[in-house]
């Protein structure tokens, strides 16, 4: 399998999941400015949206959208327990967390990467994020992981919290989230993914 990625982007969540599976994979970096891959291809021919992550399967097919990719990877190695079994309530809870992270955290953080977004909008987004972080703080105050044991949702949350560091969004009001971030960072698979992306 080949992961198309950009260092520290949402593709890091998939990279972490890949490392956790123990399966073999390769990486191909995408340039966000030129939208070219490392081997010079037009990335729009890989993913028409032009964004990472994109996972090339052994069949040559391309799977996009992080929440879908990480569940696909987890299902390849059910013995690793990276996602609860399909059809269980726990699996739907995983999907609920992945959706929450994508729609409430990821989408709220995205505008901070653009200098064109007005400060007033960013202030409103910070208020929204504070409420959402409060929910996560409360949930993770009860147990170490979103579903009580590590799953692909935790890798996604770790990735998004890393964005907060990069964007200078203060997480000090959320000591539980900070402890979670530090705990996940120590996982060998997370260390591997960070090292492979040049983020250590």
UniProtKB/TrEMBL annotation:
**Alphabetical keyword list:** Transferase
- Extract the signal peptide range: none
SUPFAM superfamilies from the UniProt entry: GST C-terminal domain-like (SSF47616), Thioredoxin-like (SSF52833)
Q: What is its EC number?
A: 2.5.1.18
The record's listing under CDD domains reads: GST_C_Beta (cd03188), GST_N_Beta (cd03057)
Q: Could you give a GO molecular-function term held by this entry?
A: glutathione transferase activity
Q: What class of enzyme is it?
A: transferase
The segment(s) forming the GST C-terminal domain are 87-200
Q: Which residues form a coiled coil?
A: none
Q: Pfam families, from UniProt?
A: GST_C (PF00043), GST_N (PF02798)
UniProt record similarity statement: Belongs to the GST superfamily.
| NCBIfam families in the record | PRK10542.1
Name used for this protein in its record:
Glutathione transferase GstA
Q: Which organism is it from?
A: Chitinilyticum piscinae
Report which gene this protein is encoded by: gstA
């Amino acid at each position: 399998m080949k992961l198309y990625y950009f260092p520290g982007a949402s593709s890091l969540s998939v990279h972490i999941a890949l490392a956790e599976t123990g399966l073999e994979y390769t990486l191909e970096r995408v340039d966000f400015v030129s939208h070219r891959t490392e081997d010079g291809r037009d990335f729009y021919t890989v993913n028409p949206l032009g964004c990472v992550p994109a996972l090339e399967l052994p069949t040559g097919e391309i799977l996009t959208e992080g929440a879908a990719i990480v569940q696909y990877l987890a299902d390849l190695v059910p013995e690793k327990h990276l996602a609860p079994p399909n059809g269980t309530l726990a699996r739907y809870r995983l999907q609920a967390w992945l959706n929450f992270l994508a729609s409430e955290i990821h989408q709220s953080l995205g505008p901070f990467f653009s200098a064109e977004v007005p400060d007033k909008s960013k202030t409103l987004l910070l208020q929204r994020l504070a409420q959402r972080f409060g929910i996560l703080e409360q949930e993770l105050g009860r147990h170490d992981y979103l579903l009580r044991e590590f799953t692909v949702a935790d890798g996604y949350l770790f990735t998004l919290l890393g964005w907060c560091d990069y964007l200078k969004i203060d997480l000090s009001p959320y000591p539980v989230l900070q402890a979670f971030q530090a705990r996940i960072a120590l996982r060998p698979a997370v260390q591997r993914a960070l090292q492979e992306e040049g983020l250590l």
